[in-house]
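[step 3/7] inverse_fold.run input=structure_tokens len=339
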């Protein structure tokens, strides 16, 4: 696991990095468990007891990942009190880009009118937002850019096999965004820990559509452009990796879990959240949960949750926040933020 500890006064040539605004957006359309009962052989009881999910949002047919990302970004910029022309860099974390290229970040740059901004995508699946935060923070810390917009956005409904009950009940669409800047006399992002294990890439993948297996009539007929997952193995790896990443991040900051005001875990499954909380020794009241309303929105998950936690008053200036994520790759990560 690699880690980066952000500087305080000991390394004055690097700046501290704060999140100065957050925002999120989910599509209007709600898909309930009752509706899924009509599509595949499943039940509200099974989905609720195995995952905690009651409903998820589904983007409209003409709505792409860049549209969700743009709406979330407008809210984050408004909360930060800045205009799009002040943004220096846009990073979008997604596994459901509008297209393979150009990047979704470039499309967001145009839709926002962020005319000065450089823009690129990163891909770390459900861990993408914390990976993007880490990358963005280095640009601000090093004085390369003053204002970086970090977005986690997904239209998971576009890669779901709606005949596969093992996966179609789990995911949803949405986006969350954060503005990173140096705020004088504030600490902000204290540490980030990232990890990956490509040896387990096959546990969760979208096999076709890339250079290894380009799109053909045969690949489409075989459903190879849909997400595939070994749920049980993914579950076990998720719990262990998230608990380890969070423990490492806390240790680097010399913090104990009891000092954290709000733990925001990746929202994949209530049982994963509970198990991670238990391994960390967290009080359930410290854990932020919205998986019941949105399902697993991959890279958007902790970004949406962070915005909701702030809007609900669960996080206030000076509070310590722990983000912890896990996804395909495998990838995982944690971040500690002094709000
Ligand atoms: O975002 C990061 C990556 N994603 C995750 O972290 C997700 C990780 N995995 C999970 O959350 C869980 O493994 C699942 C929710 C996917 C599955 O829960 P599980 O307790 O591991 O269930 P299971 O795979 O052991 O399946 C149990 C049974 C199977 O039937 P049999 O073989 O025991 O007869 C499945 O066919 O449940 C069946 N099943 C369903 N039944 C009703 C699977 N999906 C459904 C369904 N409705 N939607």
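[step 3/7] decode complete -> sequence:
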């Amino acid at each position: 696991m690699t880690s980066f500890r952000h500087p305080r006064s000991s390394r004055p040539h690097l700046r501290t990095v704060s999140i100065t605004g957050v925002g999120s957006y989910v599509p209007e359309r709600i898909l309930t468990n009752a509706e899924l009962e009509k599509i595949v052989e499943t039940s509200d009881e099974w989905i609720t007891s195995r995952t905690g999910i009651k409903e998820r949002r589904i983007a409209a047919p003409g709505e792409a990942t860049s549209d969700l990302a743009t709406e979330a970004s407008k809210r984050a910029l408004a909360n930060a009190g800045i205009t799009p022309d002040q943004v220096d860099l846009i990073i979008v974390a997604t596994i459901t880009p509008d297209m393979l290229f150009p990047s979704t970040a470039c499309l967001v740059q145009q839709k926002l009118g962020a005319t000065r901004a450089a823009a690129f995508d990163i891909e770390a699946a459900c861990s993408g937002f914390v990976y993007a935060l880490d990358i963005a923070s280095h640009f601000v810390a090093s004085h390369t850019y003053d204002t970086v917009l970090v977005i986690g956005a997904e239209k998971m409904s576009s890669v779901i096999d709606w005949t596969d009950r093992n996966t179609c009940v789990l995911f949803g669409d949405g986006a969350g965004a954060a503005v990173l800047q140096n705020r004088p006399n504030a600490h902000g992002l204290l540490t980030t820990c990232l990890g990956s294990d490509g040896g387990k890439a096959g546990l969760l993948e979208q096999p076709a559509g890339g250079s290894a297996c380009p799109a053909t009539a045969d690949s489409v007929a075989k459903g190879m452009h849909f997400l595939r997952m070994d749920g049980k193995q993914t579950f076990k790896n998720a719990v262990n990796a998230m608990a380890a990443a969070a423990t490492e991040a806390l240790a680097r900051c010399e913090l104990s879990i009891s000092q954290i005001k709000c733990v925001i875990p990746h929202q994949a499954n209530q049982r994963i959240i509970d198990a991670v909380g238990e391994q960390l020794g967290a009080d359930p009241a410290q854990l932020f949960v919205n998986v019941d309303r949105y399902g697993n929105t991959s890279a958007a998950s902790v970004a949406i949750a962070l915005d909701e936690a702030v809007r609900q008053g669960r996080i206030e200036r000076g509070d310590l926040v722990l983000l912890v994520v896990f996804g395909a790759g495998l990838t995982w990560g944690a971040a500690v933020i002094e709000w």
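[step 4/7] annotate
The mean pLDDT is 96.
The longest helix spans residues 231-252.
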